[in-house]
Design a protein that fits this description.
The complex is a heterodimer of chains A (302) and B (354). Chain A has 302 residues and is mostly helical. Chain A has helices at 6-34, 40-61, 67-94, 103-124, 149-171, 173-183, 185-190, 195-221, 228-243, 248-268, 274-288, and strands at residues 129-130, 140-142, 145-147, 223-224. Chain A has one domain. Chain B is mostly helical. Chain B has a domain at 50-263. Chain B has a two-stranded antiparallel sheet with strand order 1-4. In chain B, a hairpin with a 2-residue loop joins strand 2 (169-170) and strand 3. In chain B, helix 6 runs antiparallel to helix 12 and helix 9 (182-201) packs antiparallel against helix 12. Classes of the chains: A mainly alpha (302), B mainly alpha (354).
């Protein structure tokens, strides 16, 4: 390890961190309004990444060669499909258990996560799939830092999507309904908010963001594997908790922090320990500052 | 369902729910005992060569299910890193056998003890956090143990794992074949079932149930919530430590592959599938799991993961109490005595096993 690497590692960390933040949005929004850790989020991210491969190959068959247009189409279509899948997840694994003890939806979301991951594994035969080259590979160099164009692209797209989501929650009528449900679901229903529909929409948006994250991951790293949802989901959850779960800007802050910290860790520790570092961050944050960086203290619900 | 079919179905359900006449009840109980003994001894009369591993695995997973049932079923704490304690038991045995020449018998208490210590160390900071955060923290702990098992090559042998110890012996008999370990594993299941069932009815067990039902009310009634949660965590992990040591001895190899997140997920699934809080359920859940994951997977390949996850989803949605729901049994003598004494609501209270 040398200090000369430091700026480069910060940049790498910020790039990958913006991606984690995007996936963390799904956790944080769902948790914010229904107090459920939606484990399925990690699997939705993976499904989105795989759908991206399919969409790119369909586009290539259709003769569409413009890479930027292809990327936009891939993100939009994969997000829409995964959002629809998230609606199914909400309908099957969450909605029937609204009034069940809190352990039940937690177990079903875990089962859904495992089910989706297993389906991807069966369908792809556990083979990693490759993404097409979307942008030129020649990296930009700025002093000690090199930055691949795709890396810059994912950071920009991820941050734009997160800002859009923040504005959606803060500025629109539906966003206001979401915030109202987060404060008090029954009161929100009495004020005429269709809580069922708003909750479903939140799941769908979370799934869509995860899918966008999956496609961006694939475009940047070139390969997707059948178990990427496991680690990806966990890091994103760590990001959500670190930023303050239930807090939309917190997802970005948490994502960037986790990204930079884990990229520092690779300077000191061998690469294989990266996972353990993320787990460690998660445990330390939960034990000492469970409300996260931007979060307020949340009372335990009886 | 309409008309006659619906009525017949209703009658069947009502008949199923209705209490059996005493003689039939006795007969049913005898049949259950015979079936259980028959199943437990199946490897011997089926011939030991028939999937020898499957029987020991069923017993070990049943132990895991029974132990995790204390944590999830009794105390209501979702533990997603339970197999970490199984790993600790396994690696303690492997190290003791390889480098210190200890036998399996000397190692069993050591593995169990270290699993308990580890659970106390991880549980102490963890158990103060809210229920759903706990799930994630235990997931993190399980992940760290897995990464450590993969990379702390000095202690764990890394990806290749540890192997090459001498087969354990008892009274001059060597334990070499998987089936040699079966009586031991089966004995562990029986002990675990008896001890955990006993715990459920004890003062500690009743405190767990209070905490599970309403933590705030439990605290208000003077139950030291965090301390009792810690007890649940520790008394749950002993069994994983013991089972892990036997598992390593049986496999004659121990490697990180057995302690992935998937394994901990399956452990949770076994408990939920069987019925949270139900010892019989944990055993049935383990049998289901081993049949699907090991036996059926010979035909279905990776599809067994899909089948098992879907099964879990269906059970939680349509039969939330599990395949064999927990039904506390109060000795009828006690019930009658309470009824004679005319305690108000005595019958119901005893039925609930409070």
């Amino acid at each position: 390890m040398s200090l000369a690497e430091l700026p480069q590692q910060i940049v790498n960390g910020l790039v990958v961190g913006s991606l984690y933040g995007l996936i963390a949005l799904g956790y944080t929004m769902v948790y914010g309004i229904v107090r459920l850790i939606n484990f399925a989020q990690g699997a939705l991210y993976e499904v989105g990444a795989y759908l991206g491969v399919v969409i790119f190959s369909v586009l290539a068959d259709a003769g569409l060669r413009n890479p930027v247009l292809g990327l936009v189409v891939a993100i939009v279509v994969a997000s829409a499909l995964t959002g629809a899948l998230a609606l199914v997840v909400e309908r099957v694994a969450y909605r029937p258990l609204r009034h069940a003890p809190p352990l039940a939806p937690l177990v079903t979301s875990l089962a859904t996560f495992f089910l989706l991951m297993s389906i991807v594994q069966v369908v792809t035969g556990a083979q990693p799939l490759n993404y097409p080259q979307v942008l030129a590979v020649t990296p930009w160099t700025l002093g000690p830092i090199t930055l691949a164009p795709t890396a810059a692209l994912i950071a920009v797209v991820a941050i734009v999507l997160m800002v859009a989501m923040h504005l959606f929650v803060q500025r629109t009528r539906t966003g206001k309904a979401m915030r109202a449900i987060a404060v008090n679901r029954d009161a929100a229903a009495l004020m005429g908010i269709n809580t069922t529909r708003v909750v479903a929409l939140t799941f769908a948006l979370g799934g869509a963001m995860a899918a966008a994250g999956g496609v961006l991951f694939g475009v940047n790293y070139g390969t997707v594997t059948y178990n990427m949802g496991e680690f990806g989901g966990l890091v994103a959850f760590t990001a959500a908790v670190l930023g303050g779960i239930g807090n939309v800007p917190g997802a970005l802050v948490g994502g960037l922090t986790v990204g930079v910290l884990s990229s520092f860790a690779t300077m000191v520790l061998p690469n294989q320990w990266q996972e353990a570092v993320v787990f460690g961050i998660l445990i330390v944050v939960l034990a000492f500052r469970p409300q996260g960086i931007l979060g307020e203290r949340v009372a335990e619900r009886a | 369902m309409t008309g006659g079919a619906g009525r017949a179905w209703g009658a069947l359900r009502a008949g199923w729910r209705a209490p059996l006449p005493p003689r039939a009840r006795l007969g049913l109980r005898a049949a259950t005992v015979v079936a259980c003994v028959g199943f437990a001894t199946a490897p011997y009369w089926l011939g030991g060569s028939y999937y020898p591993d499957i029987w020991v695995d069923m017993a070990l997973w049943a132990t895991v299910g029974l132990g995790l049932n204390v944590v999830i079923g009794f105390a209501g704490l979702l533990d997603l890193g339970y197999m970490a304690f199984y790993a600790i038991g396994g690696y303690v045995f492997a190290n003791a056998a390889l480098y210190h020449g200890l036998t399996l018998w000397e190692t069993l208490p050591l593995g169990a003890g270290l699993a308990v210590i580890a659970s106390a160390v991880i549980g102490f900071p963890t158990l103060r956090v809210r229920g759903d955060y706990l799930a994630i923290m235990t997931l993190g702990f399980g992940g760290i143990v897995y990464v450590a098992a993969k990379n702390l090559t000095l202690v764990t042998g890394g990806d290749n794992g540890l192997y090459g110890w001498r087969a354990p012996t008892l009274l001059g008999i060597q334990f070499v074949q998987p089936l040699d370990f079966y009586p031991l594993a089966l004995g562990l299941v029986v002990v675990t079932a008896l001890v955990t069932t006993g715990l459920r009815g004890s003062r500690i067990g009743r405190a767990w149930v209070c905490i599970k039902d309403d933590e705030l009310a439990a605290a208000a009634s003077g139950i030291a919530v965090i301390r009792y949660k810690l007890y649940a965590y520790m008394l749950g992990s002993v069994w994983a430590g013991l089972a892990g040591a036997i598992f390593a001895a049986k496999q004659s190899l121990i490697s990180p592959q057995s302690f992935t997140f998937n394994a901990s997920f399956f452990a949770v699934a076994i408990v939920v599938l069987g019925g949270m809080g139900s010892p019989a359920g944990a055993i049935v859940g383990a049998i289901f799991y081993v049949v699907i994951a090991e036996w059926l997977s010979a035909y279905t390949g990776t599809l067994s993961g899909v089948i098992f996850a879907a099964l879990l989803l269906v059970v939680v949605l349509f039969r939330p109490a599990g395949l064999i729901p927990y039904r506390p049994r109060v000795p009828r003598r006690r019930l009658r005595r309470a009824e004679r004494a005319g305690l108000p609501g005595a019958t119901d209270d005893y039925r609930l096993g409070v």
